[in-house]
Design brief:
about 160 residues
Length: about 160
């Protein structure tokens, strides 16, 4: 995607009107339209202000990366020793095989984090199954009683259960 497409996508996804962005940048609505239609590109200062407005990197706006994470997110502390950026740098220093192993480990962690929600859903389904089992047992009991009554009625002489006119 080019800059104009990316700008349009960011603006519309976030419910921002051209007028709002134009006011923030102190430019005309036509200028924003020209950016989005690829007629003009913003200068470096304006590009940085657009990146700041949408909390993305200039690289993302220019289509150099598909990562829309704000660049200052790299400074988020994950522990006393690590930031997001330092972990990313460490990942890049690993061999391809090790990176794949780390990716699999991350997938496993995501699965483990989702477990409580899944366990809760399973518990709800188990309770529902128990209620359904109880309902089925009651229906079986009712059917058995009705079958017994039918057998008793069949064993009676015909005149005892016939309705007189």
């Amino acid at each position: 995607m080019n800059f104009g497409d990316i700008l349009f996508q960011l603006r519309t996804e976030r419910g921002i009107y051209q007028k709002q962005l134009a006011e923030y940048l102190a430019v005309s609505i036509g200028t924003i339209s020209n950016y989005e239609n690829g007629v003009h590109c913003p200068d470096l200062n304006t590009l940085c202000r657009i990146a700041d407005f949408f909390h993305v990197s200039a690289d993302y706006l220019l289509g150099l990366t598909s990562n829309s994470m704000p660049i200052d997110s790299l400074n988020i502390r994950l522990s006393d020793e690590y930031t997001v950026g330092s972990v990313l740098n460490s990942m890049l220093e690993l061999s391809q095989v090790s990176r794949q192993s780390v990716s699999k480990y991350l997938d496993m962690i995501k699965i483990c984090e989702a477990m409580p929600e899944k366990e809760e859903a399973i518990s709800r389904l188990m309770a529902q199954l128990q209620r359904q089992k109880h309902t089925i047992e009651r229906q079986k009991q009712t059917m058995a009683e009705q079958a017994q009554e039918i057998l008793q009625l069949k064993s009676l002489p015909e005149e005892k259960y016939m309705i007189s006119p």
